[in-house]
Write a structure and sequence with these properties.
Elements (H helix, E strand, L loop, with lengths): L13 E5 L15 H14 L3 H15 L3 E5 L9 H10 L4 E6 L8 H7 L1 E7 L5 H8 L4 H13 L3 E8 L8 H10 L3 E6 L17 H9 L4 E3 L9 E5 L4 E5 L12 E4 L4 E3 L8 E2 L6 H14 L12 H4 L2
Parallel strand pairs: 1-2, 1-10, 2-3, 3-4, 4-5, 5-6, 6-9
Antiparallel strand pairs: 7-8, 8-9, 10-11, 11-12
Helix pairs in contact: 2-3
This protein binds S-adenosylmethionine.
């Protein structure tokens, strides 16, 4: 079997599966508000695919690509009713590196079951520790539920990391409180530069808070040194003098397209080779291996060589 790779030696080894295109938060950078949530909910009900079909698609992709990692995301993956079923079925395919990205609101009651089903690693998105600022960013309350969920996931043996999007004028004063929270629980935290996606496409500048600005803020309290970046990693990492690690996902300041190994599958059965401006490629009802390989080749051509260019697709649909 010929391994699919491009001129930059990039292969698809990590699959990000957006299980559902609805969410129980309304983050200002991700959706345009509750009206959109309602519309998207209808979309999922009418056109969404079953867990059985989704699992067959992932199995076909694995047969062709020999995937190493699957990350479940969304939308909010904990809203997907067959979540435990789909995690278990992917584990049965022999893929052991199973991860999930969640906002954590519903985590407390499902963390232990997720661990039993095979999830070993989890990113919890948390953009503020202060409840008022959390509300301003996510248009919902619930920070204490999220914190209880994080504790439960840690107790269940899951490796938890925190992801925080930093927006100028909105939550940059949460960088140090979030960092202190993560350090107090020995968790890795990654700060994300805002990406020009969805309704922010072409107008993300006013909220952009760069990697350098994040580092300057952290430097008012901590001394740190840069760590070597691992191949295909989305984040740059630093280590403080006290031995704590933090990261920054700097899509704009320090793009990492050059060794990207990610393929995305959305909740309607479309694949994408990149988050940047591109088009959905349906892999539903693909009968022959050659047909799937051709579609994967097209997805591979979508990969950017220099940097993320932005996309009018919201992260809600394509999966973060
Ligand atoms: N609902 C889950 C969550 O909140 O983690 C999973 C989906 S969410 C789209 C995945 C990640 O994408 C979150 O960490 C979120 O903060 C991030 N995200 C969404 N839109 C973004 C944007 N425009 N720029 C940067 N990060 C974004």
């Amino acid at each position: 079997m010929v391994e699919l790779r491009d001129d930059f030696e990039r292969k698809f080894k990590t699959l990000r599966v957006s299980l559902i295109n609805t969410c129980n938060l309304g983050c200002v950078y991700c959706t345009c508000g509750t009206e959109d949530l309602k519309e998207n909910h209808l979309l999922t009900q009418e056109k969404g695919i079953s867990a059985h079909e989704l699992s067959a698609i992932i199995s076909n992709l694995h047969n062709t690509l020999q995937l190493e990692t699957v990350r479940f995301t969304g939308g909010e993956p904990l809203l997907y009713k067959d979540l435990l079923k789909i995690v278990s079925s992917v584990k049965q395919l022999g893929i052991n590196d199973l991860k999930i990205t969640t906002n954590g609101l519903l985590l407390e009651n499902i963390a232990a079951d997720l661990a039993s089903a095979g999830i070993t690693s989890m990113n919890v998105s948390l953009d503020a520790i202060d409840e008022d600022i959390f509300y301003k960013v996510s248009r919902r309350s619930g920070i204490h539920r999220i914190l209880r969920g994080i504790d439960k996931a840690i107790e269940s043996g899951i490796d938890v990391k925190i992801n925080s999007v930093v927006m100028k004028g909105l939550n940059e004063d949460q960088v140090l409180p979030l960092l202190n929270f993560a350090f107090s629980r020995n968790l890795r935290i990654r700060f994300l530069e805002i990406m020009a996606m969805g309704h922010l496409f072409g107008q993300s500048e006013k909220h952009f808070f760069s990697q350098d600005e994040i580092l300057s803020l952290i430097n008012t309290r901590y001394e740190f040194t840069r760590q070597l970046r691992k191949n295909s990693s989305t984040a740059n990492y630093w280590k403080t003098e006290e031995g704590h690690i933090f990261g920054i996902v700097a899509n704009e300041s320090e793009p990492f397209c050059g060794d990207c190994n990610r393929l995305r599958l959305d909740s309607l059965g479309n694949i994408y080779g990149c988050l940047s401006s591109n088009f959905p490629i349906s892999v539903r009802n693909v009968q022959k291996d050659e047909e799937l390989t051709e579609k994967l080749q097209v997805a591979m051509w979508q990969k950017q060589t220099v940097k993320f260019t932005g996309s009018s697709l919201s992260m809600l649909n394509i999966g973060g």
